[in-house]
Structures are given as C-alpha cells and as structure tokens.
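ARCHIVE CARD
SHELF: 3
SLOT: left
DATA:
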Amino acid sequence: MQIIPSSMLPERDPKALREFLSGCRETARKKGHFQIASITLDVKHIAPLAVLQSIYEPEELHFYVERASEDEALAGAEAVVSASFSGADRFAQAKAFAREILENTIAVGDLEVPLAGPHFFTAFTFDDAVPEGSIFPPATIFLPRWQVSKAKGHYGAVANLRIDPDSDLDQLVARVWGAYQKFTAFDYPDHAPVRATSPGTCTRRELNAGHYPQAVAQALEAIGRGEYEKIVLARGIELEREEDWQPLDALNRLRERFSGCYAFSFGAGGGRSFIGATPERLLRIENGKLMTVALAGSAPRGTEAAEDARYARDLLTSEKDLHEHACVRDSILRRLEKVGIHARADQFPRLLSLANVQHLRTRIEAEVGEGVHLLDVAAELHPTPAVGGSPREQAVPQIKELEAMDRGLYAGVVGWFNHLNDGEMIVGIRSALIEGRIARLMAGAGIVEGSEPDKEMRETEIKLKALLDVLTGG
C-alpha cells in the first residue's frame, strides 16, 4: 500500500482533495488497474452504531463490532470492492484478494490514529461449503466505502473510493467532501423514532423438533466407541412476527445488556443481517501480539449470591467441564504450533461471568512474526473444539448429519483485518439470523463422556434465552 504523508497535503479543502484523487486516477491509468483511494480523518467524537443506523441501507453489505467494556467499536458500510469464496482454501483466497487490493491502494490522512486506514471485513460460515441458496457464501470479504471507529479515546472516519482511469473527479470530490463535513460534526437527532420493544404476536418454532436429545445420545454412543473425544451439537429455533424485525435496534439492546461480550452485525444485503453478542474471540493480533482464548464449560447464573457461588464452584470443580475445557485449550495450542506460533496459556481456567451464563476461560498469548498472516491463523484455528469437536478431523464431519441442519454463519467467524496485519476475529455464537419477519436462533453444547441429553438441552435453552429476551422484549 502506498502512503502519502499528510505533510504533502497540508490543506484540507476540495482543491487539495481533487489534487490527491487526480494523482490516484493517473496511477490507475499507468498501472491499468483501478486504485483505491483511502482517506482517514481523526474526528472529535463519533458513535459507530449511531452512524451505521443513520446510513444503513438494507440492500448494502455492512459490518459492526463493539465491546462496550473496552470502549472499542468499528463499523463499515457499502462495499467499494467485495468477493466471495468457497472450499477448503477460502481463507487463503480471501487473503490473496486483500493483498491485491492493498497493492493498488493509496492512503492519506491521519494514519497515526488507532484503526486508521483501509480495513477488510469478513464472514466465514462454519462449513467451507454451503447448500445452494444459502444466505451467506462460505467466505465473504469486503472493503467498505465508509468506515467509522472509536478506540483508545480516539475517533476516526475513513472513506475508501474506487478510482478508475475514467472516473469523474468532480463527482468523487463532492461525495467525499460531503462525508467529511458530516463525519467531522456528526449530528445526532434530538428525538430518535420510538419503536415498540415488544414484537407483538410472535410465534416460536423448533427446528427439527424432538431431534436434539436423540442426536446427543447418538454422539455419546460414538464417543463410547472411541470415534472422537468431544463434539458440539446445536439446536435451532425460529421466531416469526407480524412485522419485520429491526436488527440494529436489537443489536443496540444486545450491546447494552451484554457489555462484556462482542456485539456484532454482518449484513448480507437484501435486508438480511447476522447479529449477536458473543463472548468468544477466535483471535486478535495487535502490534505483532496474538491473543486468543479457550472458552468451554458452562453453568447457569444464580438468582442470589449463594446460588451463583455454588454454580461457580461446581463448574470450577466439575470433572466433565474441566475435561471439555482442556480439550479446547490443548487443541488451540497444537493448532498454533502448526503455523509456527509458540503460545503461552494461563495455568488454570478462570470464570467468565456473563449476564445469563458463566464459562471456564483460559487466556492464550503469543508473539507473531511478519510471515504469519491473521487469516493463516484463523484458518488453522477454525473451528475450535468449543464449537466443533476433538479430534477435529473425526468430529466435525459428523456434525451436519447429527444436527440435520445448515449452521450458516452460526459458529462461523466474523471479523476484520488491515494492512498492518492487525485484526480481530470472533466466533458467531449467541447469535440470530434476521430476515424480514423471521429470526433464526441457534445454540450448542459440548458433548463429552458423562454428558446427559436432558442437561445439554437445558444448557442450550439458557444460551438461547439471551437472544430471546432481547428480541421478544423479555
């Protein structure tokens, strides 16, 4: 990526902008390839979700992620370039696509602020192949036309433009200058439109009703035969109401209720959005440091302090849950070794207490060399035993047959990365696929020796409740 120092464009006015874009157009003519002009601005204050709501177009791709407890959020909308891929090498194809775009990108502006410059947004389904007619392809990657962020006390806005050899510069200047004026002094409405939090008449339907306990029993038989050690099985429900769901409104309630989780949304266009509040990070790379987490083993939250403490104690001493957790931790460490990363894990798991459930959690960290791309690591880690199984090669191929449904983006990977190889990928659990009047929810549980079908069914119901309460106003 070519970076133009801000000192070369000291004036911030339409004339200087036109001069920069003219240079980009000349480069496009010389190289015979379109260029991406990426312009970053350090702004006083901006709220990514509020901006996304203001520019939201149901037919356009969009991305949003926020972890309120860390005061970090990132949103992008409208694809200036995009691609989709399938197959076992889908992560590698997405990486190659991004590399080609970056080789034809010219960036300028306040590139020293956090989350500056062009960012690619991605979504990878659980499986590397999906049935015909699926909403999401196995891999989606796009560079947004507009991106806004907040991180470490800084706020930024990025405009990415496609510059072809015959691009109309006057039109581009008008578009960017208008966005510059909007984002540097974003105007939030005094009174947001009031929408009912209750969905009114809402019907619930179980996908494959009565199937889940039978699937768990079949998995336990396979575990007893030594076919695999652990497998994660999910069940799904559909909610239907008289009016269309409002995915970004539900997302706002999710981020308020589950501030310790990653609130996220990936829009497929056509008014379809995959939203959720996941506690699980697949990986993050920042300044060459990799951070991931082993998350497995679950218990309810108590209504009183004593009950909550009893659930926590039982989880920390549960042989079944500690075994399940160790499967996930050890698998992550082995997978990182495969890409040349020697990681360090906490000696003992700790509790991660969320609003409706608590988990066993182990932090894992490592240094990453320049030769290892974030998507290389994601390809090796996905799916972890927390959402797939162990050994992966034996367990994961059995999931689709046992569940008898297509997971889509559920338990898949959603995230972002940039030209510095910084980025973050999260696991799409505690999620819902919103399409018009239909909301499809899934939740899973890890099946190991000692699991009981009825208990696993109750665990999935606890996990579903987070989304159910938000969507139905509970």
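SLOT: right
DATA:
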Amino acid sequence: MIRSVTHSLDNYPHTGTTRYEDGVTKIPGFACSTMDAEWLSKQLKLRMPVQLFLKSSCKQGPDVLSYNVIGEIRGSEKPEEIITAGGHLDSWDLAEGAHDDGTGCMQSIEVIRAIKALGWKPKRTIRAVMFMNEENGLRGGTAYAEFAKKLNEQHIFAVESDAGGFGVETLGISGKPEQYAKVKSWEKLFKPYGIYELSDGGGGADIGPLKPLGTVLSGVNPNSQRYFDHHHAANDVFEAVNKRELELGAFSMAAICWLVSEYGL
C-alpha cells in the first residue's frame, strides 16, 4: 500500500496501474489517501497496535472492440498533408476523467469548431482525434499510427493535450532543428494566450507512435502544480475545470494547427 502521490491532503485515493514482471508472485497494490496515510503514520509513531484489512475486487477483463473518434476539415490546397490535434477518451475508477483527459478532448474539438466558426479554409487537413484506451495499453494511438502507415498518409504535425485543463505555460515541439526553428519564429504570436515559450521537446502518449513516420510532435504544457490534486481520483470532475483556462489551452492548439496548416514545416 502506498501513500497517494499528491500534494493535497484529502480523502481521495489517487490510483494507478500495478505491473508485474513475468515469473514473480503477484502481490496486490493499493493506493491510500493522504489523510489516511497521515493518520496511519501517526499511530505507528505512537507505537499503537494497528491492524489493516484490505479487500480488492479488481480484475482484468477481456479485450473488447472500441474505436477512436475522428473529425476533420479537409485541406483546400494540400489535403494529403494531415495535422492532428488530440486527447483521449477514458477515465479512471470513480472519476469522470475531466482533467485526464476530458479537457484534452474538448480542446481538440474546439480546434475544429473555432476554424469552422470563423469560416476559414485551412490549406492542409486538420483532424481532431479522441484516442481510445490510452490508460490500458495505448491501443488507440497505436492503431491510429498503424492505419496511417498502412494508408501511406502524410502526418506532418500532431499536438496533444494530456496534462490537465490548466493555464498553458509552454508548447513543446519535437522535430528537426530547422522545423523547430520555424515554429520558434511564431513564438511572439502566442503571448496573448499567456504562452511565452515554444520549447524544444514535446509530444504525448497518443501521438508518440506517429514519430517514426516523421511527424513533428507538440505537447500542451499547462502549469502542473494542481494536476495531481485530481489525477486518477474521484474528484477529477467537470466542476474542477476552470472555463477560462480550458479556453486558453484550446486557443493555443488552434493557433499552432492553423499556422502549420498555412505555412507548413
């Protein structure tokens, strides 16, 4: 049993996945809320007799068929060149998965909605992708890249939001030096959104499988101080999302996708 990895003192166990090497005894793992961990630690320091009863009903079910959800605006000049904005569709235990990763999904959808609402016609194809099953094996992201390779699609750029719907501080970029330099030249355009740096190095779990195809990857990097107040806990709910912070993340994704669409890499 481990103390939940969060700075908050609360009664929510912040859970995760237990993995085992082959050939070892599988001892169950449990997450303990920080409040309960504090109480237990105090009792042990006082040398009080403590008995702990644990019961687990967790199990691994069989795989079932599921799908990524994809929407796109076809490019007006180079539709074969594809730009992906993504989050993932899953949650953990009792939570709604608002910050992990409902916010990333909504920001990706907003990229498409905003461009359509403005009546703009992107030169390159822009996709919003809700990847399935990131938590349990990265199946959606892997399948997306496999189909891209099978169909010989040109995925030139992908951006992912998977670090909570908080105020964005930087956008990370992973690509060739000349590609990063081109993106870096747009840095001043992001200052109205509170983003003062397009940093070297970025990506995300779901878009990572696209990297062998030569895709330039980008990751939305919000302020991380509050993420583990909600991560994989029952309080990761819609009410914990700040509307303005959610919008700022969406603006940054829409802006980078539009710039790549218009000017290429």
